[in-house]
Amino acid sequence: MKPYRVALIGTGEIATAHVNAVNALKDRLELVAVCDIDTSRAEAFRARYGLPAAYGDHATLLREARPDFVLVCTPPGFHAPASIAAMEAGAWVMCEKPLCASLAELDKIQETEARTGCYTACMFQMRSGSAGNHARKLIQDGTLGRPLVALANTLWFRDRAYYAVPWRGKWETEVGGTTMAHGIHTVDFLLHLLGDWEEVRAIAATQFHAIEVDDLLMAHVRFANGARASIMNSAVSPRQETKIRIDCEHATLEADYLYSYTRENWRLTPSALVASDTAHAAKLHSAWDSLGEDIGSTHTAQIATLIKNRDEGTRPNTSGDEARRSIDFLTALYKSAFTGQAITRGSIRPGDPFYTALNGGQGAVRDIR
């Protein structure tokens, strides 16, 4: 099959991960152009990777390069406009997180999908790991019993130089703090594992950095299946880790990693009652060990799935209603933190100030009292 033509918009640090993924899939993809508003950066990127063309604006790139796929790696404030323009030019989009800045922008993306027949998917590579999807199956098919308690921690550290980059730390351009920039992966993965949420209560703060947005957020979540979960997103934790833990009736499943995982990052621990039943314990371990091929949670794995979606004309699993579940939840985290109220799923609608801005137009997180 002729390779799909791929263009890249934005040449920041994360763009390298996208290029590496394209190169790993070179039998199906061909990177034909790059764009950055800083033309010197675009040209340096083109030369570094031996690309045919570099542009200083995305409109010219889309018109002249005619890509089948567009990878959006710009600062978050431009994600929705770039994705919409790419779909209107006939391309499918893989957009770095966060997919957009608000539920209002998500509605515009979905309106464009319906009009063009193209799709925009968010880069949530934690969903692409085979161990994570195997864990999801065992949770949802009842093998582990009813899910009871969950933990989702993104405890990372970012120094002052990180926030010295002009677009970071501001609502207008970064669109949120450590929750949207870092914890978003673990939060979306938690929803992927446990399904629909019903209510969330959250607090947010700026503990260390001189920024408008959060460098710490904590939350309690009630899920439709009855499970309760604790979330912590931090950019001020010197010993960094990412942790997912799901405690079910029969066993605990947990993963400890930083930016990606494979099977070796996961472990299953039967409950004391199950451990005393040799046959039941053996059955649980056998179910976990039936994982099969070990695919890591990488950009390559998710972009490979996007190729399959386009081949088959099927919707990517990080777009549409799945994208809305995460954006609705992330918006609810911030609304709860700013208002001090419990927020229910689907309650943030047009007319609500949090529908158009994650901070509801209420200023900096440090102003929360």
UniProtKB/TrEMBL annotation:
Pfam family, one: GFO_IDH_MocA_C3
Record lineage: Bacteria, Pseudomonadati, Verrucomicrobiota, Opitutia, Opitutales
Gene3D superfamilies (alphabetical): Dihydrodipicolinate Reductase, domain 2, NAD(P)-binding Rossmann-like Domain
Matching InterPro entries: Gfo/Idh/MocA-like_OxRdtase_N (IPR000683), Gfo/Idh/MocA_Oxidoreductase (IPR052515), GFO_IDH_MocA-like_dom (IPR055170), NAD(P)-bd_dom_sf (IPR036291)
Signal peptide: none
Protein's UniProt name: Oxidoreductase
Domain Gfo/Idh/MocA-like oxidoreductase N-terminal: start-end pairs: 5-119
MF terms in GO: nucleotide binding
Coiled coil: none
Residues of the GFO/IDH/MocA-like oxidoreductase domain: 134-254
Organism in which the protein naturally occurs: Cephaloticoccus capnophilus
